[in-house]
Amino acid sequence: MTQARLDFEKEILNLTLALLDKYKDDLTRVGINRRRTELNRNRGGTNYLSEIEIQLWDENDLASVEEYFVWEEDKPSATKEELKEWIEDFLKDVIEERKSMKSKRSKLSTFFSTLVRGIGRRFG
Q1: Which residues pair with 71 in a beta bridge?
Q2: pLDDT tens by residue, 27-59
Q3: Which of 8, 13, 60, 112 lies at 20 to 30 Å from 50 by C-alpha?
Q4: H or E stretch including 35?
């Protein structure tokens, strides 16, 4: 294993952890927490492959798993800037999806509460 590969993998793992820290409060506000973020390496055959895996959880339920190839066939799979952009976009998308889900749940809850009150007044 070359030092350049080790350095790049470490840099991308640290970048990923920094981005997760940056978005931690936003993720927490929408009910998501990080349980595991790791660098996985596969040395099978002659091809070397490494990837970052991010697991996001909603209490005890797995909410999302994302994997990004870091090193593939003796070269980086993308630049540091590209990987940063992909990971940051993923985190922003998760946050927006959860906000949208919460908004829809809130609207449904309000609708059903209003409906139940209306039925109660009419038949109560």
Answers
A1: 50, 76
A2: 999 999 998 899 999 877 678 899 999 999 998
A3: 60
A4: strand 33-42
